TrEMBL record:
Essential subunit of the Sec protein translocation channel SecYEG. Clamps together the 2 halves of SecY. May contact the channel plug during translocation. The lineage of its organism: Bacteria, Pseudomonadati, Bacteroidota, Flavobacteriia, Flavobacteriales. It comes from Hyunsoonleella jejuensis. GO terms for cellular component: plasma membrane. It is found in: Cell membrane; Membrane. Belongs to the SecE/SEC61-gamma family. The keyword Protein transport applies. The gene is secE. This is Protein translocase subunit SecE. Keywords: Cell membrane, Membrane, Protein transport, Translocation, Transmembrane, Transmembrane helix, Transport.
Length: 64
């Protein structure tokens, strides 16, 4: 149990003293960037899924 406590204390010390955190403005802009790319990527996946679905449906209708 002492090992876990030591690990948690050292982890908090590492986060507090050695990690460079972004500024609030930079964090906001990066969050918007991630959100935009997530939306674009999800729309691209939706488009590919729709096309593949139509192709597979057409194929199975053809072989009936």
């Amino acid at each position: 149990m002492a090992g876990i406590v030591t690990y948690v204390k050292e982890s908090f010390g590492e986060l507090k003293n050695n990690v460079t955190w972004p500024s609030w403005a930079e964090a906001q802009s990066l969050t918007v960037l991630v959100a935009v790319f997530s939306i674009i990527f999800s729309l691209a996946i939706w488009g590919v899924d729709t096309v593949f679905s139509k192709v597979i449906t057409a194929y199975f209708d053809l072989i009936k």
